Each structure stands twice: as C-alpha cells, then as structure tokens.
Amino acid sequence: MKDKYKKIWELALPYQDKRDDKGHAKIVTEYTFELCQIEKANEIVAVAAAILHDIGWSKLSQEERLNIFGSKITPEAEYEIRLKHQNESVKLAKKILNTAKYPIIYFKDIFEIISEHDTREGFLSSEDGVMRDADKLWRYSQKGFQADLSRNNFTFDFLYNKMLKNIDRKNYFCFDSARDIARQELENRRREFSE
User: Alpha-carbon torsion 122, 126, 129, 132, what sign?
Assistant: First the structure.
C-alpha cells in the first residue's frame, strides 16, 4: 500500500471486517487501485473511500451486522440497516481523515461515495463507480465467494449462476473493466471448485 494511505489504513483497521468478511477491506482496496489505473479515476478519493466505506458496521450490533444475510429480513429493514452503517461510516471517516491529516479538499467527495455506496442508484463519478465496483468484486474474489457460500448455505452452482447473472444486470457494475474482472474471477472459482 502506498505511504499516503497507510495512516488511514492503520486508523481504520480496528473497525474493519466486522461482518464475517475477513479480508474485505483489503481486497476492495486492491481492486480499487486496479480499477483506478484502468479507468483513470482519482485514486486519492477512491482509495480513501474504499478503505473507509464499511467501517460503520463496527458501530452496529452483531445482530444488525449479520441479519442482512438472512432470508427473513424484509427489504425495508435491510435498507434501514444499510443506511445506518453508511451514516456511521461517514462519521468515523471524518474522524480518521482528520486524524490522518488527509487533504481536506477531498473530504466531500469521499463522504459522498461512502454515504450511499450500498443504496444509491447509478453512479455519481468515476471514483464512485470504481469504489462501488471494487466493493462488488469482493464477492467474486476467492474469500468473498467462500464467505457467501458459508453465510448463506448456497451450493456452488447456485451462487456461481447468481453471480454470473449479476455481471450484466443494469447498474450492477459501472465499468466494463469490472465486468471483465468479475468474469475472470468467476472462471477462477469454477476452476478451483472442479479441482
């Protein structure tokens, strides 16, 4: 990780990966770096948003953090929980960015991305698209795919087909580059499963 992001990373670490998703923050950040290079997005905004986007889960109860994966939750209840974690993420992000002495000129854009990264329709900017695509790509990564299999008791084929359909779903991904990465990752999961 580049030096300019290490302080943010270190300050955010105690709040990361609170939903049975060990490695989520790191993998999302790695995909964000990759997509910023491909899409020429402003890394200073997108990477900070990636590091900080889910830290608000740490302020929710364990029940709230894990209920969103259950089949019994209503769409309205899930939406409310997602809004709550986004709001908490922005609050913590403000503290962390100030402590890290991150350039204040980028705060508004970073907070805007974090504030609705799970609930906004469409994409506000390249940086928003890159970060949100990277967040979705987590589910295609080896760790993310395994987490979904375990949490939801899905069969491999069910999850594979569900994720494959999502790739071309309208407004699921912002960039074709993310769709290409998702397809490659799914092929990797298929290969791993058949070994």
Answer: negative
What span, in angstroms and rounded, lies between the C-alpha atoms of 130 and 39?
A: 8
Taking residues 47-61, report their average pLDDT: 93
Count structural domains, the chain. 1
- Structural domain for 69, as ranges: 3-194
- Residue 43's SS3 state is helix
Percentages (nearest 5) of helix, strand, coil residues in the chain? 75, 0, 25
Predicted local distance difference test score (pLDDT) of residue 23: 82
Cα–Cα distance measured from residue 160 to residue 189, given in angstroms and rounded to the nearest whole number: 8
pTM: 0.93
**Encoded tokens for 67:** 């209920």
Alpha-carbon dihedral sign for residues 184, 12, 93, 64:
positive
- Helix 43-52 vs helix 3-12: angle between axes, to the nearest 10 degrees? 20
Query: Positive or negative CA dihedral for 6, 83, 181, 187?
Result: positive
Tokens of 41: 């997005």
